[in-house]
Amino acid sequence: MKRIPSTFTPPIMLDSHSKTPIYRQLYDWFRSAITVGRMRPGQRLPSTRNMAAELQISRISVFNAYEQLHAEGYLEALPGSGTCVARTIPDDAFVSLAAQGRKGSQRIVAASGPRTVSARAGALLQVPPELWLHNLGAFRVSLPALDHFPVDVWSKLVARHSRSQSLRIMAYGDAMGYLPFREAIAEYLSTFRAVRCDSSQVLATTGSQQALQISAQVLLDPGDQVLTEEPGYPGARVAFTSAGAQLVPVSVDGEGMMVSEMIGRGPHARVVYVTPSHQYPLGMTMSAARRMSLLKWAEHTGSWIIEDDYDSEYRFGSRPIASLQGLDVHGRVIYIGTFSKVMFPALRLGYVVVPKDLLPAFCAARDAADIFSSTLYQAVLTDFKRC
Ligand SMILES: Cc1ncc(COP(=O)(O)O)c(C=O)c1O
Question: Which residue lies with its CA nearest to atom 3 of ligand 1?
């Protein structure tokens, strides 16, 4: 048992003109005194009565400050005889906290040498960051014309749904997403993108980045090969790398990913990632012949195709190209879409169309990630699409 020195009244300065309540100033003083080692474990505190008299403040303020420090584990009650600094706090905690106060925590971290992160985090650090994220100027890729967005309509709908205070909007939601939103997506995809699906297969996500991340988690084990377009979308590389996958780049030409090269490079690959409607970043469309051979290969090898259909709503000269998923009769395609390009990226809403047998695994992975997307924005977007 540690020795308990006799009580004393510390030199506390309180500011009666401050906006910070007196009890809070007292609490701050003790907390700081304890964390920098000015008050040691086991050291007694004056009684609430003495402290109040000494500082000429109400006893309630002292009581409230002590209560808070008790609740946070800085103080402990001594049986029958007052209060002391908690003896359960190890002595060396005070030494290191005090040292931090003198030197600054960053310098202590630097002195202790590099700290290890997981191999997966290390691999992620090797992927070059997206430079375009920091540029909002003209001609930048990946950003829609935000100045043309109908902010008035959008904000009225946000206000209407926010005012409704519906429990459905405010409580926890379904990991698969808000049903009317999923129904609207399924209808849109079947009509405009020739995707074969019903609403039960639509999983709402926080953008297509999360859709890629979840797909990687569900389909890949560490060391599995993933075939990716080269050049290709760095966000996809990050998602597969974070699942511990081994990336195998495949060249693209005027017809999209070169499927014959792909088959040669990764005959046992578990996943192939493609942007067939509008290759990222070069913009070509995958030819019908390549689509057929890709689907045939996936069916033959039991591999999965991840189709990232991120912006095919935009076409200059023709109607949108039908999806690869719509040609797939064996359920080997995971179809991913996003509202980042047709709406705005900060909305963070996207979706995956999942083959029916994979639904439980995708739903579980979504739940583990961040449970569900904002129901408010799913509801607003459902109405927005009807305007
Ligand atoms: C090919 C591709 N996929 C996905 C995305 C990102 O989508 P999200 O904002 O929905 O995560 C982008 C963004 O530019 C992209 O270029």
Answer: 310
